[in-house]
Amino acid sequence: MRFFSKINQNNLLHNRVLIVFFASLFLLVLIRTAWISDDAAITLRTVLNFTHGFGPTFNIDERVQAYTHPLWFLLLSVGSYISGNVFYTTFFLSIFISVATLIFLLGTQPRNLLALVLISAAAVLSKSFVDFSTSGLENTLSHLILLIAVVYASLCLDKGKNRLTGFFLSCSALYLNRPDLLLMMLPMAIYLFYTAYRKPEHHVWKSILISSIPVVLWTGFSIFYYGFPFPNTAYAKLGTGIDLDERVVQGLIYILHVIIQDPITAFFIMAGIIIGIFSSVLNRWLSIGIILYLVYILSIGGDFMMGRFLSAPFFVSLIIIARESFSKLIVITLIVSIIVLGSRNIIPNFISGSSYSNQAISIYGVADERGYYYQRFGLLAATKNTFKQPQWFIHNEKVGTICGELGFNSIRHGPGMHYIDTCALADPLLARLPAKYDPNWRIGHFYRQLPTNYQESLEKNKNLLADENTKKYWDSIRIVTRDGLFNKNRLFEIIKLNFGFIEKPDYDMYRYHNVKNKINGELEY
């Protein structure tokens, strides 16, 4: 007995040593590769407005939710308010949460020493996972929430404990951090609900009611403050007018791009799905969740940031693999895969450091986003004052028009600059207009035509739009996003807008025709 006890103690010691080693390696990799994306800077401008008393909105003169991740936004806001620097807060939270998540994964999930080594090596060699473990986007917090949800699900299924409230609360947190990621937990949630429903002592409805409180509270606040239940970005990206078949083709291209450029990520997602399907009940439902989420990615056309939407399914695949005891054949296959496929990412993840740059954008619009921005906004590469906390006060009120690089440009020009985002992420009217028809559209960059006199209207704070339908529609939006929160008429406009009781502008005019606009005082088409 003493002999076996000593073996177990040695294995535990080896595990701890390996966890410290891989966590330290991951920390080093993240410090060398840490960066902030321009999309994240859109959120950071909202954080600056919020922490300086202008409200949680992108342009200070209208209430618009230009971020998709309320939980991450609130965490950044609290951290920035305490630290006094929004950029270094973003770096610190991203790196700290990412390393803590890996330690949590390695300390709770691996069934044996080999599984610990496999998932650690895959994590540090996946470009998608490394890139979006910083970037300033919500991915890093999503990874942690997904792991917490799996731990609670495991306690319910593997240990027979009643931890439904913890699991469903994790699902609520996931929705509040990135709503579409809930798809990965949906099959598991349905299964847990079904099994618990058959056991009255589990009080499943009570767990769901308690767990839904954060979502209900946030949705209620969103409707009251912003006027709509969902982020403005959702309306902008789901109302483009682009056909499903075109989006699916683009989604396939997106996944193919990752397979070519970051093969270890694609391989481990596929390995996680296959291993999970033929594994335990928990792993099987996680695999189905990954498949469901990948179908969703296809349906929306993927993204322009290579790997952004695949870091979460990759991480869940690591959880599946960590929970398995492998045959000799699978072990050899995974080890060979790490060596062969992971070697491609040694340069961007380990060697390049502050010199890393990749400005290429594929003909299909997919880019290495870290490579594109790292030299300007990388932790170790940016110039000296890049991440200095900006002086956030109104010194010059202007109206400008922009789409690409909206985030950092809007921070650079301060809160007095009202940016018309022609990609509609931050504009409440344009988000509800279709994208201008373009057979060569780029995913994530859906250009909207400005209604005639739109910029002039914003400059004069008066509705001067030429088209009557658009003018009436914008009148309603202006009441919702600009009038006092407790204005009696505002409540009625919120109801009318959300239930479609207000006639929308001519779809075909903005989608297929050229709309007159004043540029430098002259009408252009």
Low-confidence stretches: 1-9, 520-525
Average pLDDT figure: 92
Indicate the proportion of strand residues: under 5%
Shape: globular
Terminal Cα span: 85 Å
Please list the strands of the largest sheet in the order they lie side by side.
1-2
Number of helices in the DSSP assignment: 23
What order do the helices and strands follow? HHHHHHHHHHHHHHHHHHEHEHHHHEE
Task: List key phrases describing it.
525 residues, mainly alpha, two-stranded parallel ribbon, two-stranded antiparallel sheet, 23 helices, 4 strands, 3% strand, globular, disordered N terminus, disordered C terminus
Give a written overview of the molecule.
By secondary structure, this protein is mostly helical. Helix content is 61%, strand content 3%.
How do the helices and strands line up, and which of them pair or pack?
Layout: H1 2-33, H2 38-51, H3 70-83, H4 86-108, H5 113-125, H6 127-131, H7 139-157, H8 164-177, H9 182-197, H10 204-225, H11 232-238, H12 244-261, H13 263-277, H14 281-300, H15 311-322, H16 328-342, H17 346-351, H18 369-377, E1 398-402, H19 406-412, E2 417-421, H20 454-460, H21 468-482, H22 488-498, H23 507-512, E3 517-519, E4 522-524
Parallel strand pairs: 1-2
Antiparallel strand pairs: 3-4
